[in-house]
Amino acid sequence: MRRRTVTAGSLEEILQATAPAAAPDQAAAAPVAAPAPREDHGLRTEFEFELPRGYVDEAGTVHRHGSMRLATARDELRPQIDLRVKENPAYLSVVLLSQVITRLGNITDVHAGIVERMYATDVAFLQDFYRRVNSEGHTRAAVTCPHCDGGFEVDLSGGRLGES
Length: 164
Description:
- The chain is α+β, with helices and mostly antiparallel strands and about 160 residues long.
- The protein has helices spanning about 10-20, 25-30, 75, 85, 90-100, 110-115, 120-135; strands at about 45-55, 60-70, 100-105, 140-145, 150-155.
- The termini are far apart.
- About 15% of the residues are buried.
């Protein structure tokens, strides 16, 4: 048996092709309804970050600022069938990060080869950032001042190494 993968775009085409034909008088009488506008539920799905060292591309440009989106179940499952991950389980984080990083400087096509060429410090930062964003749902942490015992919240996502 052969399986067919259907994407969102081709699903619409299939539904239109398999829909029963409407009578000519029904087609003229029934206006096509516009899709309902998406509601903003306040869910933040993309998070900005700044790498401690930065990715250096072939031209020598350093890219430090980027963004990462929330991971989906597919993002977590896809690396499990990747041959590179099967050969070397440590490669899982490279594949996973390459799927969820949406931008790195002016690079919008972030792939495993880019993550492979990052400094270990930056990969460790991104692994921790991924864990915080996807496990805890945010990048803020409640902290207490050791001097005055005052409580406050810090955003862990954008500072340089050693800064809060």
